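Recap from last week: sequence in, structure out.
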Amino acid sequence: MKKILEVGVLLSSERDIHQLLERILSCVMELTHCDAGTLYLLDKDVLRFKIMRNDTLRTYSGGDGKDPDLAPVPMDRGTVCALALLEDKTICIEDVKADTGYDFSGPIRYDKMTGYDTRSMLVVPMQNRSGEKIGVLQLINALDKEGKVCAFDPNMVLVVESVASQAAITIQNVRYIREIKELFHSFVQVMSAAIDERTPYNASHARHMAECGSRFVDYLGGCEGHAPFSPDQKEELLMSILLHDIGKLVTPLEVMNKARRLLPEQHAAVHHRLETIRLLAKIDRLEGRSTAEEEAERLRQIEEAAELVEKADQAGFVTDEMKKSLDRLQERRYVGEDGMAHPWLTEEEHAMLSIRKGTLSQEERKQMEEHVEVTDRLLSQIRFSPDLSHVRQWAAAHHELLDGSGYPRHQKGGEIPYEVRIITILDIFDSLVADDRPYKRAMPVEKALSIIRTMAQEEGKLDPALTARFMESRCWEG
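Predicted structure tokens:
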């Protein structure tokens, strides 16, 4: 009775399907004091070997998650294990060699191959509460106190049937849990892909980070001073990575896809205006208000202006000299057909072209930075399980920096969790080396490493120890 209670506790606490199957077979073999056993699970129209154990032959397979290398058993009445499940009845045989009521050709072939002597057998079907067929327990060669093969004790049959019933329910529950987790993971993968696919300039960012992050935490687990991540901890971190940019689902595409400083309509307006100035210069000459030399000078100025606009629009960095040229261009005026003076560059165009680094204005950058707050709001709507309880917090904090200069909450030092520090390093590195960003070219790996080293060691923005380990790991290489 004590052993049966222990089995019940074990079955209710185990959530790893492979360990669960192993425990089920070991428990019923111990309860019945038998020499060998096999646990099968139903897979469509066949029974698949999951766990096999034979103490006499000292063989054991299936406990590592890999199924025994044996052909599955068809679900027909030709085999005793399939028949037991089909008819939902326990089959107990004292001597398979002498029994003529069932087909024991399988065990007989096994005995010829291995030299084993199969005698007594107990086959118990496993079904859940709703009668759904789950699998079969097949026990071989019960042993008496002297270790000799004997028939299975009839009193133990009911015990094994009870355990099999509990096992079937537990197996089904574990399967449900696994299916629910797989469904949720699929949802996260789809959402992550949707974020990346929404714009060609963000393709595969989260996936690259997750792949790199998985290798990095595995590397950290082998480093002195860094505790290994448990499977649940690793899953929680990777889930945070995959969802860290979910807020970009509502970021305007014209901001996310902004490859130049000027918006397309602004770019068109500037060149349309320059073309208008060119035509007005030509009209002035034809109508005698200017000379050919004056027209040529105006055309030269227009050409220079067009070149300056294109150069500033695409520059990685706007220099002081370029900024002064833009200032002079913005001060220049022409007289339109309405007789009024108009600027060659509007104030808004001038402000956009004068952005020192990157392509986004302060307002546009604010829109981009808002994605982390949107991430927090969106993830607040998901009821994460306890083992994923930090996903929202970690995903929404990936732009926080140790010196407090990050956003949105400007957290500092110890306020930023260890896992967030990892995500931040991964995010910055992948952004630097990515070759699909509209506002910059892909940066060589060594230059990117130099930047994050500076951010860690000199600027105090990144965790120095984690940054050093990241650089050592070369986890981006796969």
